[in-house]
């Protein structure tokens, strides 16, 4: 009897592959503020959230809003952070990229001004500004890739806490399994060639000699559309 492939099970939408967001502490992001005005926020608690790899700091803004943000290294409960164009350059403070000098570590960078932060959000990572132009600011991400951002995009000064997390070995497969289950991640990930023939088109006794092309046709059914998916178009482009 055949089985659904992993991608088919995910698409079905069963609880096994649904993120347990009811266990998450909340969404991280920045509060709204007016240009030219500095608002402060008190750190009321440091939290652990199963949906985030980094510890979160619980903030209470002077405007009355409450929010969550990834905690930088060296921060502690009771401290205050600032948010604004003229905020001080210290860990935890939030400034637009245009007001941050080159080489200072930053994290939680907005993709578009006002979206709350989309880039550099994992534990122990940071980015830095490389060059500034009139219409864009080039930032070097932890992957060493360089990406341009709008000068109005905000970021947090510092390095995210929790560095060294991936360096501690799990030692046992069971420990890794339960850690991945907390985030509803499918683990272990098995290659198609290592499966039985009923579980995957690449499976079977021939081991890694697949015997069939790894490129699927564009009109293949979902169970067969594995490996290299056919390109949208082929042949030379007509001018």
Question: Could you characterize the architecture of this molecule?
Answer:
With 239 residues, the protein is mostly beta strands. It is built from 2 helices and 12 strands; from the N terminus they run αββββββββββαββ.
Short description:
With 239 residues, the chain is mainly beta. 7% of the residues lie in helices and 22% in strands. The protein has two domains: 6-17 and 184-229, Ribosomal protein L2, domain 3 (Irregular), CATH 4.10.950; 21-165, SH3 type barrels (Roll), CATH 2.30.30.
Walk me through the topology:
Blueprint: H1 6-12, E1 39-47, E2 56-61, E3 66-70, E4 80-83, E5 94-96, E6 105-107, E7 127-132, E8 137-140, E9 146-149, E10 154-157, H2 173-181, E11 215-216, E12 228-229
Parallel strand pairs: 11-12
Antiparallel strand pairs: 1-2, 1-4, 2-3, 5-10, 6-7, 6-10, 7-8, 8-9
Give the overall shape.
globular
Query: How large, in whole angstroms, is the Cα Rg?
Result: 23 Å
Strand order of the largest sheet: 5-10-6-7-8-9
Alpha-carbon distance between the two ends:
50 Å
pLDDT averaged residue by residue: 87
Number of strands: 12
The CATH top-level class label of the largest domain: Mainly Beta
Low-confidence stretches: none
Task: Please supply descriptive tags for the structure shown above.
239 residues, mainly beta, Ribosomal protein L2, domain 3, SH3 type barrels, 2 domains, 6-stranded antiparallel sheet, 4-stranded antiparallel sheet, 2 helices
């Amino acid at each position: 009897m055949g089985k659904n492939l992993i991608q088919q099970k995910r698409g079905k939408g069963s609880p096994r592959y649904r993120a347990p967001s009811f266990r998450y502490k909340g969404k991280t992001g920045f509060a709204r503020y007016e240009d030219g005005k500095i608002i402060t926020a008190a750190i009321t608690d440091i939290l652990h959230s199963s949906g985030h790899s980094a510890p979160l700091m619980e903030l209470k803004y002077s405007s009355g809003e409450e929010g969550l943000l990834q905690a930088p290294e060296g921060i502690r409960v009771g401290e205050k952070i600032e948010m604004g164009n003229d905020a001080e350059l210290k860990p935890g403070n939030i400034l637009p990229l245009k007001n941050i000098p080159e080489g200072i570590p930053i994290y939680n960078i907005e993709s578009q001004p006002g979206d709350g932060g989309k880039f550099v959000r994992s534990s122990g990572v940071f980015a830095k500004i490389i060059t500034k132009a009139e219409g864009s600011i080039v930032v070097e991400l932890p992957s060493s890739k360089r990406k341009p951002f709008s000068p109005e995009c905000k970021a947090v000064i510092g390095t995210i806490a929790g560095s060294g997390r991936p360096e501690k070995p799990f030692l046992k497969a069971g420990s890794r399994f339960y850690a991945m289950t907390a985030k509803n991640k499918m683990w272990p990930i098995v290659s198609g060639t290592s499966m039985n023939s009923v579980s995957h088109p690449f499976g079977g006794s021939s081991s890694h000699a697949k015997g069939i092309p790894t490129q699927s046709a564009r009109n293949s059914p979902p169970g067969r559309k594995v490996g290299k998916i056919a390109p949208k178009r082929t042949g030379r482009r007509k001018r």
